[in-house]
Amino acid sequence: MAFADIGEIRCGPGETRVFEQGWQSWSPTGAYRLTDTPPRPADETIQILAYRPETPIPDGVFQGEGLLAVEPGDGSVELWSAPTPLQVPSIRAREEDGRLVVSADDPVRHHRVEGGLDQALRDWADTIAEKRTFPAVPPMWCTWYGYWDKVTDADVIENLKLSERLGLGADMFLIDDGYEAEIGDWLEGRPEFGSLARAVDAVTDAGRRAGIWTAPFLVGHRSRIFREHPDWLVRGAYAGRMWDQELAVLDITHPEAAEHLVNVFRTFSAMGISHFKLDFIYAGALAGERHEDLDPIAAYRRGLELIRRGAGVAATLHGCGAPMLPSIGLVDIMRVSPDIAPTLQPKSGDISQPSQLGARLTGAAREFMHARWWVNDPDCIILRPEVEAREEWAAHIAGTGGLRGSSDPIASLDDWGLETTRRLMVPTSTDPS
Protein backbone atom coordinates (compact mmCIF):
# COMPACT_ATOMS: atom_id res chain seq x y z
CA MET A 1 0.00 0.00 0.00
CA ALA A 2 1.02 3.60 -0.52
CA PHE A 3 1.65 5.79 2.49
CA ALA A 4 -1.26 7.97 3.60
CA ASP A 5 -1.19 10.80 6.13
CA ILE A 6 -2.96 9.81 9.34
CA GLY A 7 -2.14 12.53 11.88
CA GLU A 8 0.11 15.33 13.00
CA ILE A 9 1.55 16.78 16.17
CA ARG A 10 3.09 20.14 17.07
CA CYS A 11 6.76 19.80 17.96
CA GLY A 12 9.78 21.76 19.08
CA PRO A 13 13.19 20.81 17.59
CA GLY A 14 14.98 20.98 20.93
CA GLU A 15 12.40 19.05 22.94
CA THR A 16 10.72 16.46 20.72
CA ARG A 17 11.96 12.87 20.52
CA VAL A 18 10.82 10.26 18.02
CA PHE A 19 11.08 6.56 18.88
CA GLU A 20 11.67 4.27 15.90
CA GLN A 21 10.97 0.56 16.39
CA GLY A 22 13.19 -1.48 14.07
CA TRP A 23 11.79 -4.32 11.96
CA GLN A 24 13.94 -7.19 13.23
CA SER A 25 16.53 -8.13 15.83
CA TRP A 26 19.41 -6.31 14.14
CA SER A 27 17.48 -3.21 13.03
CA PRO A 28 18.52 -0.13 15.02
CA THR A 29 15.90 1.00 17.52
CA GLY A 30 15.89 4.10 19.68
CA ALA A 31 14.63 7.63 20.35
CA TYR A 32 16.03 10.55 18.35
CA ARG A 33 15.71 14.31 18.47
CA LEU A 34 14.50 16.10 15.35
CA THR A 35 18.01 17.36 14.73
CA ASP A 36 19.49 13.82 14.86
CA THR A 37 20.16 11.61 11.86
CA PRO A 38 18.87 8.15 12.82
CA PRO A 39 20.86 5.06 11.77
CA ARG A 40 20.29 3.95 8.19
CA PRO A 41 21.66 1.03 6.13
CA ALA A 42 25.14 1.44 4.72
CA ASP A 43 24.28 -0.37 1.46
CA GLU A 44 21.59 -2.35 -0.34
CA THR A 45 22.76 -5.71 1.02
CA ILE A 46 22.49 -4.49 4.63
CA GLN A 47 19.00 -3.15 3.81
CA ILE A 48 18.01 -6.78 3.15
CA LEU A 49 19.99 -8.35 5.99
CA ALA A 50 19.12 -5.96 8.80
CA TYR A 51 16.30 -3.58 7.85
CA ARG A 52 12.88 -3.99 6.22
CA PRO A 53 13.68 -4.50 2.54
CA GLU A 54 10.32 -3.48 1.05
CA THR A 55 10.14 -0.07 2.79
CA PRO A 56 13.47 1.76 2.51
CA ILE A 57 13.41 5.02 4.43
CA PRO A 58 13.54 8.32 2.51
CA ASP A 59 15.95 11.02 3.62
CA GLY A 60 14.65 13.36 6.29
CA VAL A 61 11.99 10.95 7.53
CA PHE A 62 11.59 8.98 10.76
CA GLN A 63 10.23 5.45 10.35
CA GLY A 64 9.13 2.74 12.75
CA GLU A 65 8.05 -0.78 11.90
CA GLY A 66 4.86 -1.51 13.80
CA LEU A 67 5.46 1.36 16.22
CA LEU A 68 6.42 4.99 16.03
CA ALA A 69 6.14 7.11 19.18
CA VAL A 70 6.53 10.86 19.57
CA GLU A 71 7.42 12.57 22.85
CA PRO A 72 6.84 16.30 22.19
CA GLY A 73 8.34 17.44 25.49
CA ASP A 74 5.22 18.24 27.52
CA GLY A 75 5.12 14.91 29.39
CA SER A 76 2.78 13.26 26.92
CA VAL A 77 3.56 10.58 24.34
CA GLU A 78 1.65 9.86 21.15
CA LEU A 79 1.95 6.36 19.71
CA TRP A 80 0.99 5.00 16.32
CA SER A 81 1.22 1.23 16.26
CA ALA A 82 0.25 -2.03 14.61
CA PRO A 83 -3.25 -3.19 15.51
CA THR A 84 -1.95 -6.75 16.01
CA PRO A 85 1.37 -8.60 15.57
CA LEU A 86 -0.09 -10.15 12.41
CA GLN A 87 -0.21 -6.82 10.58
CA VAL A 88 2.86 -4.62 10.83
CA PRO A 89 2.63 -1.26 9.06
CA SER A 90 5.59 0.96 8.36
CA ILE A 91 4.88 4.30 10.06
CA ARG A 92 6.64 7.54 9.12
CA ALA A 93 6.93 11.06 10.48
CA ARG A 94 8.20 14.06 8.55
CA GLU A 95 8.71 17.59 9.81
CA GLU A 96 6.69 20.35 8.13
CA ASP A 97 6.42 23.91 9.46
CA GLY A 98 6.79 23.05 13.14
CA ARG A 99 4.64 19.94 12.87
CA LEU A 100 5.38 16.24 12.58
CA VAL A 101 3.11 14.74 9.95
CA VAL A 102 2.56 11.01 10.46
CA SER A 103 1.79 8.56 7.65
CA ALA A 104 1.49 4.79 7.34
CA ASP A 105 1.12 2.13 4.66
CA ASP A 106 -1.51 0.09 6.55
CA PRO A 107 -4.08 0.73 9.29
CA VAL A 108 -2.70 1.72 12.70
CA ARG A 109 -3.89 2.33 16.24
CA HIS A 110 -3.27 5.76 17.75
CA HIS A 111 -3.31 6.73 21.38
CA ARG A 112 -1.97 9.48 23.61
CA VAL A 113 -0.62 8.75 27.09
CA GLU A 114 1.08 10.58 29.95
CA GLY A 115 4.11 9.57 31.98
CA GLY A 116 7.00 9.67 29.54
CA LEU A 117 8.35 7.47 26.78
CA ASP A 118 9.72 4.60 28.88
CA GLN A 119 6.38 3.97 30.60
CA ALA A 120 4.49 4.41 27.34
CA LEU A 121 6.58 1.66 25.72
CA ARG A 122 5.98 -0.72 28.62
CA ASP A 123 2.24 -0.07 28.56
CA TRP A 124 2.09 -0.52 24.78
CA ALA A 125 3.98 -3.80 25.01
CA ASP A 126 1.44 -5.05 27.55
CA THR A 127 -1.48 -4.23 25.28
CA ILE A 128 -0.28 -5.82 22.04
CA ALA A 129 0.53 -9.29 23.39
CA GLU A 130 -1.33 -11.77 25.56
CA LYS A 131 0.09 -11.90 29.05
CA ARG A 132 2.52 -14.79 29.55
CA THR A 133 4.85 -15.85 32.32
CA PHE A 134 8.45 -16.60 31.48
CA PRO A 135 10.38 -18.90 33.82
CA ALA A 136 13.98 -18.08 34.66
CA VAL A 137 16.37 -19.36 31.98
CA PRO A 138 19.76 -20.56 33.26
CA PRO A 139 22.96 -19.20 31.66
CA MET A 140 24.66 -20.83 28.68
CA TRP A 141 27.96 -21.09 26.84
CA CYS A 142 28.09 -20.53 23.06
CA THR A 143 30.75 -21.47 20.50
CA TRP A 144 30.33 -18.53 18.12
CA TYR A 145 32.43 -15.60 19.34
CA GLY A 146 35.37 -17.77 20.31
CA TYR A 147 35.57 -20.19 17.40
CA TRP A 148 33.37 -18.71 14.65
CA ASP A 149 32.60 -21.23 11.89
CA LYS A 150 35.81 -23.20 12.51
CA VAL A 151 34.47 -24.80 15.70
CA THR A 152 35.05 -28.50 16.35
CA ASP A 153 33.47 -31.07 18.62
CA ALA A 154 36.69 -31.04 20.67
CA ASP A 155 36.21 -27.29 21.34
CA VAL A 156 32.74 -27.93 22.73
CA ILE A 157 33.93 -30.73 24.98
CA GLU A 158 36.97 -28.78 26.20
CA ASN A 159 34.85 -25.81 27.24
CA LEU A 160 32.27 -28.08 28.84
CA LYS A 161 35.01 -29.49 31.06
CA LEU A 162 36.47 -26.04 31.81
CA SER A 163 33.07 -24.64 32.71
CA GLU A 164 32.57 -27.46 35.21
CA ARG A 165 36.06 -27.20 36.67
CA LEU A 166 36.11 -23.39 36.96
CA GLY A 167 32.52 -23.00 38.15
CA LEU A 168 31.35 -20.89 35.22
CA GLY A 169 27.76 -21.94 35.76
CA ALA A 170 26.74 -22.72 32.15
CA ASP A 171 23.67 -24.94 32.06
CA MET A 172 23.29 -25.11 28.26
CA PHE A 173 25.97 -25.44 25.57
CA LEU A 174 25.03 -23.93 22.23
CA ILE A 175 26.77 -25.25 19.12
CA ASP A 176 26.62 -22.33 16.71
CA ASP A 177 27.41 -22.00 12.99
CA GLY A 178 30.17 -24.29 11.75
CA TYR A 179 28.94 -27.82 12.37
CA GLU A 180 26.87 -27.99 9.15
CA ALA A 181 28.01 -28.85 5.63
CA GLU A 182 26.23 -25.90 4.02
CA ILE A 183 23.58 -23.29 4.75
CA GLY A 184 20.39 -25.30 4.32
CA ASP A 185 21.98 -28.74 4.68
CA TRP A 186 21.58 -28.89 8.46
CA LEU A 187 21.67 -32.66 8.88
CA GLU A 188 24.88 -33.04 6.89
CA GLY A 189 28.02 -32.34 8.89
CA ARG A 190 31.12 -30.34 8.05
CA PRO A 191 33.86 -33.00 8.21
CA GLU A 192 36.27 -30.69 10.04
CA PHE A 193 33.79 -30.23 12.89
CA GLY A 194 33.90 -33.88 13.87
CA SER A 195 30.86 -35.60 15.32
CA LEU A 196 27.80 -33.60 16.30
CA ALA A 197 26.43 -36.63 18.15
CA ARG A 198 29.66 -36.90 20.15
CA ALA A 199 29.47 -33.25 21.22
CA VAL A 200 25.76 -33.43 22.11
CA ASP A 201 26.21 -36.67 24.05
CA ALA A 202 29.08 -35.16 26.05
CA VAL A 203 26.87 -32.21 27.03
CA THR A 204 23.80 -34.24 27.96
CA ASP A 205 25.85 -36.94 29.73
CA ALA A 206 27.22 -34.15 31.94
CA GLY A 207 23.65 -33.26 32.91
CA ARG A 208 23.60 -30.09 30.80
CA ARG A 209 21.27 -29.05 28.00
CA ALA A 210 22.41 -29.07 24.38
CA GLY A 211 21.58 -26.31 21.91
CA ILE A 212 22.11 -25.87 18.20
CA TRP A 213 22.12 -23.03 15.68
CA THR A 214 20.34 -23.03 12.34
CA ALA A 215 19.22 -20.44 9.80
CA PRO A 216 16.13 -22.49 8.96
CA PHE A 217 14.60 -20.32 6.24
CA LEU A 218 17.85 -19.77 4.31
CA VAL A 219 19.09 -21.94 1.45
CA GLY A 220 22.64 -21.20 0.28
CA HIS A 221 23.37 -21.53 -3.43
CA ARG A 222 26.12 -24.07 -2.68
CA SER A 223 23.77 -26.36 -0.75
CA ARG A 224 22.37 -29.69 -1.86
CA ILE A 225 18.85 -28.40 -1.13
CA PHE A 226 19.36 -25.57 -3.63
CA ARG A 227 20.63 -27.94 -6.33
CA GLU A 228 18.11 -30.73 -5.87
CA HIS A 229 14.93 -28.93 -4.84
CA PRO A 230 14.49 -25.64 -6.72
CA ASP A 231 10.73 -26.09 -6.32
CA TRP A 232 11.18 -25.68 -2.54
CA LEU A 233 12.32 -22.07 -2.92
CA VAL A 234 10.32 -18.83 -2.77
CA ARG A 235 10.46 -17.49 -6.30
CA GLY A 236 11.70 -13.93 -6.57
CA ALA A 237 12.86 -13.77 -2.93
CA TYR A 238 16.47 -12.71 -2.40
CA ALA A 239 17.79 -13.00 1.15
CA GLY A 240 21.14 -11.29 0.53
CA ARG A 241 24.70 -12.52 0.40
CA MET A 242 26.59 -14.16 3.27
CA TRP A 243 29.08 -17.02 3.62
CA ASP A 244 30.47 -15.96 0.22
CA GLN A 245 27.30 -17.05 -1.56
CA GLU A 246 23.87 -15.84 -2.60
CA LEU A 247 20.96 -16.82 -0.36
CA ALA A 248 17.54 -18.13 -1.35
CA VAL A 249 14.48 -18.64 0.87
CA LEU A 250 12.86 -21.95 1.79
CA ASP A 251 9.18 -22.00 0.82
CA ILE A 252 7.52 -23.52 3.87
CA THR A 253 4.14 -23.46 2.08
CA HIS A 254 5.40 -26.22 -0.23
CA PRO A 255 4.30 -29.50 1.42
CA GLU A 256 7.60 -31.30 0.84
CA ALA A 257 9.66 -28.33 2.06
CA ALA A 258 7.44 -28.09 5.13
CA GLU A 259 7.95 -31.76 5.93
CA HIS A 260 11.70 -31.34 5.44
CA LEU A 261 11.73 -28.46 7.93
CA VAL A 262 9.80 -30.45 10.51
CA ASN A 263 12.12 -33.43 10.02
CA VAL A 264 15.26 -31.34 10.60
CA PHE A 265 14.08 -30.28 14.03
CA ARG A 266 12.56 -33.64 14.89
CA THR A 267 15.94 -35.25 14.11
CA PHE A 268 17.85 -32.77 16.28
CA SER A 269 15.36 -33.25 19.10
CA ALA A 270 15.82 -37.03 18.92
CA MET A 271 19.58 -36.47 19.40
CA GLY A 272 18.90 -34.82 22.75
CA ILE A 273 18.99 -31.17 21.61
CA SER A 274 16.40 -29.01 23.37
CA HIS A 275 17.46 -25.40 22.64
CA PHE A 276 17.20 -24.10 19.08
CA LYS A 277 18.74 -20.80 18.03
CA LEU A 278 16.90 -19.75 14.87
CA ASP A 279 19.02 -17.19 13.04
CA PHE A 280 18.51 -15.01 9.96
CA ILE A 281 14.81 -15.75 10.17
CA TYR A 282 13.90 -12.40 8.60
CA ALA A 283 14.13 -14.50 5.42
CA GLY A 284 10.87 -16.27 6.22
CA ALA A 285 8.98 -12.98 5.94
CA LEU A 286 10.46 -11.82 2.63
CA ALA A 287 8.07 -11.16 -0.22
CA GLY A 288 8.00 -13.55 -3.17
CA GLU A 289 5.92 -16.12 -5.00
CA ARG A 290 5.15 -19.06 -2.73
CA HIS A 291 3.58 -22.43 -3.52
CA GLU A 292 0.55 -21.25 -1.53
CA ASP A 293 -0.67 -17.68 -1.88
CA LEU A 294 0.13 -16.64 1.68
CA ASP A 295 1.01 -13.23 3.09
CA PRO A 296 4.75 -13.07 4.01
CA ILE A 297 4.08 -12.50 7.73
CA ALA A 298 1.59 -15.37 7.80
CA ALA A 299 4.15 -17.57 6.02
CA TYR A 300 6.80 -16.59 8.55
CA ARG A 301 4.56 -17.50 11.47
CA ARG A 302 3.63 -20.80 9.88
CA GLY A 303 7.34 -21.56 9.51
CA LEU A 304 7.88 -21.06 13.23
CA GLU A 305 4.89 -23.28 13.96
CA LEU A 306 6.41 -26.04 11.80
CA ILE A 307 9.70 -25.72 13.68
CA ARG A 308 7.83 -26.04 16.96
CA ARG A 309 6.09 -29.16 15.64
CA GLY A 310 9.45 -30.78 14.94
CA ALA A 311 11.31 -29.53 18.01
CA GLY A 312 8.53 -30.37 20.47
CA VAL A 313 6.41 -28.33 22.84
CA ALA A 314 9.04 -28.44 25.60
CA ALA A 315 11.87 -27.15 23.38
CA THR A 316 13.24 -23.61 23.69
CA LEU A 317 12.94 -21.56 20.49
CA HIS A 318 15.42 -18.68 20.38
CA GLY A 319 14.88 -16.11 17.64
CA CYS A 320 17.64 -13.99 16.06
CA GLY A 321 17.63 -11.76 13.01
CA ALA A 322 13.89 -12.11 13.54
CA PRO A 323 10.99 -9.79 12.69
CA MET A 324 9.98 -8.50 16.10
CA LEU A 325 6.21 -8.15 16.22
CA PRO A 326 5.44 -11.17 13.99
CA SER A 327 7.39 -13.40 16.41
CA ILE A 328 5.25 -12.58 19.46
CA GLY A 329 3.82 -15.74 20.98
CA LEU A 330 6.03 -18.06 18.91
CA VAL A 331 9.52 -17.77 20.40
CA ASP A 332 10.67 -18.14 24.00
CA ILE A 333 13.86 -16.07 23.73
CA MET A 334 14.57 -13.24 21.30
CA ARG A 335 17.75 -11.44 20.34
CA VAL A 336 16.91 -7.78 20.75
CA SER A 337 20.04 -6.24 19.27
CA PRO A 338 22.64 -6.57 16.55
CA ASP A 339 25.55 -8.93 17.16
CA ILE A 340 28.23 -8.00 19.64
CA ALA A 341 31.83 -7.92 18.32
CA PRO A 342 35.29 -7.58 19.84
CA THR A 343 35.31 -4.01 18.48
CA LEU A 344 33.43 -1.01 19.83
CA GLN A 345 32.49 0.47 16.45
CA PRO A 346 30.99 -1.39 13.45
CA LYS A 347 33.35 -1.71 10.49
CA SER A 348 30.80 -0.22 8.08
CA GLY A 349 29.72 2.59 10.39
CA ASP A 350 26.21 1.05 10.36
CA ILE A 351 25.15 0.05 13.86
CA SER A 352 22.94 -2.76 12.56
CA GLN A 353 26.22 -4.57 11.93
CA PRO A 354 28.29 -6.38 14.58
CA SER A 355 29.73 -4.03 17.20
CA GLN A 356 29.58 -3.36 20.89
CA LEU A 357 28.06 0.08 20.30
CA GLY A 358 25.14 -1.16 18.21
CA ALA A 359 24.39 -4.02 20.58
CA ARG A 360 24.34 -1.68 23.57
CA LEU A 361 22.18 1.03 22.00
CA THR A 362 19.48 -1.16 20.50
CA GLY A 363 19.52 -3.66 23.36
CA ALA A 364 18.91 -0.91 25.90
CA ALA A 365 16.09 0.58 23.80
CA ARG A 366 14.31 -2.80 23.75
CA GLU A 367 14.69 -3.73 27.40
CA PHE A 368 10.97 -3.02 27.86
CA MET A 369 10.15 -6.20 25.89
CA HIS A 370 11.75 -8.53 28.44
CA ALA A 371 9.33 -10.86 30.26
CA ARG A 372 6.45 -9.27 28.34
CA TRP A 373 6.88 -10.82 24.90
CA TRP A 374 9.74 -13.24 25.56
CA VAL A 375 13.06 -13.50 27.41
CA ASN A 376 15.39 -10.87 25.92
CA ASP A 377 18.75 -11.94 24.55
CA PRO A 378 21.18 -8.98 24.66
CA ASP A 379 23.83 -11.22 23.03
CA CYS A 380 26.80 -12.96 24.53
CA ILE A 381 29.26 -12.09 27.25
CA ILE A 382 32.68 -11.72 25.64
CA LEU A 383 35.33 -10.42 28.03
CA ARG A 384 38.70 -11.80 26.94
CA PRO A 385 41.52 -9.23 27.11
CA GLU A 386 41.45 -8.16 23.44
CA VAL A 387 37.75 -7.13 23.57
CA GLU A 388 37.51 -3.36 23.36
CA ALA A 389 35.64 -1.54 26.16
CA ARG A 390 34.94 -4.87 27.83
CA GLU A 391 34.13 -3.18 31.15
CA GLU A 392 31.34 -1.19 29.46
CA TRP A 393 29.98 -4.32 27.81
CA ALA A 394 29.95 -6.15 31.14
CA ALA A 395 28.06 -3.23 32.69
CA HIS A 396 25.48 -3.33 29.90
CA ILE A 397 24.89 -7.05 30.42
CA ALA A 398 24.62 -6.54 34.19
CA GLY A 399 21.87 -3.97 33.62
CA THR A 400 19.62 -6.28 31.60
CA GLY A 401 17.22 -8.93 32.85
CA GLY A 402 17.83 -11.11 29.83
CA LEU A 403 19.74 -14.22 28.83
CA ARG A 404 23.30 -14.58 30.03
CA GLY A 405 25.65 -16.53 27.80
CA SER A 406 29.43 -16.66 27.75
CA SER A 407 31.07 -17.02 24.34
CA ASP A 408 34.78 -16.72 25.07
CA PRO A 409 37.06 -19.73 24.86
CA ILE A 410 37.17 -20.15 28.62
CA ALA A 411 40.92 -20.75 28.60
CA SER A 412 41.43 -17.29 27.01
CA LEU A 413 39.98 -15.38 29.98
CA ASP A 414 42.27 -13.52 32.34
CA ASP A 415 41.47 -13.26 36.04
CA TRP A 416 39.20 -10.23 35.61
CA GLY A 417 37.40 -11.78 32.66
CA LEU A 418 36.80 -15.07 34.43
CA GLU A 419 35.65 -13.47 37.67
CA THR A 420 33.32 -11.06 35.86
CA THR A 421 31.90 -13.78 33.63
CA ARG A 422 31.14 -15.92 36.69
CA ARG A 423 29.36 -12.96 38.31
CA LEU A 424 27.24 -12.29 35.21
CA MET A 425 26.25 -15.92 34.62
CA VAL A 426 22.93 -15.89 36.45
CA PRO A 427 19.40 -16.93 35.43
CA THR A 428 17.16 -14.46 33.65
CA SER A 429 14.84 -12.16 35.55
CA THR A 430 11.19 -13.25 35.63
CA ASP A 431 9.90 -9.71 36.19
CA PRO A 432 9.17 -7.40 33.25
CA SER A 433 11.79 -4.69 32.80
UniProtKB/TrEMBL annotation:
<keyword id="KW-0378">Hydrolase</keyword>
<dbReference type="InterPro" id="IPR013785">
    <property type="entry name" value="Aldolase_TIM"/>
</dbReference>
<protein>
    <submittedName>
        <fullName>Glycoside hydrolase family 36 protein</fullName>
    </submittedName>
</protein>
<dbReference type="GO" id="GO:0016787">
    <property type="term" value="F:hydrolase activity"/>
</dbReference>
<dbReference type="InterPro" id="IPR002252">
    <property type="entry name" value="Glyco_hydro_36"/>
</dbReference>
<dbReference type="Pfam" id="PF02065">
    <property type="entry name" value="Melibiase"/>
</dbReference>
<dbReference type="InterPro" id="IPR017853">
    <property type="entry name" value="GH"/>
</dbReference>
<dbReference type="InterPro" id="IPR050985">
    <property type="entry name" value="Alpha-glycosidase_related"/>
</dbReference>
<keyword id="KW-0326">Glycosidase</keyword>
